[in-house]
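Possible regression after last week's pipeline update?

I re-ran a chain I had predicted before the update to compare outputs. Posting the input and the new output here so someone can diff against the archived version. Not blocking, just want to make sure nothing changed silently.
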Amino acid sequence: MRQLNAATLQLAVHELADRDPDLGAIVTRFGAPPLWARRPGFATLVRIILEQQVSLAAAKTMYERLRGAIGVMEPHAVHALGIDGMRA
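New output (post-update):
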């Protein structure tokens, strides 16, 4: 298994761009996306999922509200909150 770093990200982007002309055009125009350093763990996974669904500003607000409701961002705490708790 390869580790994701700046070099392997560049290789992967160019491999995908070679296979997909539309993606290739985007990479040619804008370059490869940056590799953001993030702390590994559940909290980061939650943030990434939120950021993929809504704007970064909205994701930050939602993350902070969720963290305020459960205290600690760990799987058991999110599970204990339940669906109704998440909606609230």
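Follow-up from reviewer: compared with the archived run. Helices lie at 6-19, 21-30, 42-53, 56-70, 75-87. Marking as no regression found.
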